[in-house]
Design brief:
- It is built from three helices and four strands.
- It has helices at 2-17, 50-59, 89-108, and strands at residues 21-25, 35-40, 66-68, 77-82.
- The chain has a four-stranded antiparallel sheet.
- The longest helix is centred in the C-terminal third of the chain and has 20 residues, at 89-108.
């Protein structure tokens, strides 16, 4: 059980190092479930949306949905990961590597019109 939280904190730290993302929740054991979520930094202009990132990761076999928060914060889109038993630090590193690859891809192939929640995969809460 503790390993899931440690893996979530590790992945959160690695995602934060990528640059454009701000970790909202990093899997602190006393604060909630073994998960992490992030948003685009307010001052970031990476040339892609979280929906674009989710779409790019889906091509690599990852399910890391992006979605808008409920009505009082629907202006804010986030991505999140739930760390279940069996999700290792190695698997987390592979995800972060694919996120880094996606960022590099977007630098080479700028998104002309970033995807919106309506255009994304239809993941809703």
């Amino acid at each position: 059980h503790t390993a899931c939280y440690e893996t979530a904190k590790y992945i959160a730290g690695e995602i934060e190092k990528l640059g454009p993302f701000e970790i909202i929740y990093n899997g602190e054991m006393d604060a909630g479930i073994p998960a992490l979520c992030w948003k685009m930094k307010d001052d970031a202009e990476p040339g892609f949306s979280l929906y674009d990132m989710a779409d790019r990761l889906r091509m690599r076999g990852w399910q890391v949905p992006a979605y808008a928060l409920p009505a009082n914060r629907q202006d804010l889109s986030i991505q999140r990961i739930l760390v279940r038993h069996g999700v290792s630090r190695d698997l987390g590193s592979l995800l972060v590597d694919d996120m880094r690859g996606a960022i590099d891809y977007f630098k080479q192939h700028p998104v002309q019109t970033p995807m919106t929640a309506d255009e994304a995969s239809g993941f809703h809460h």
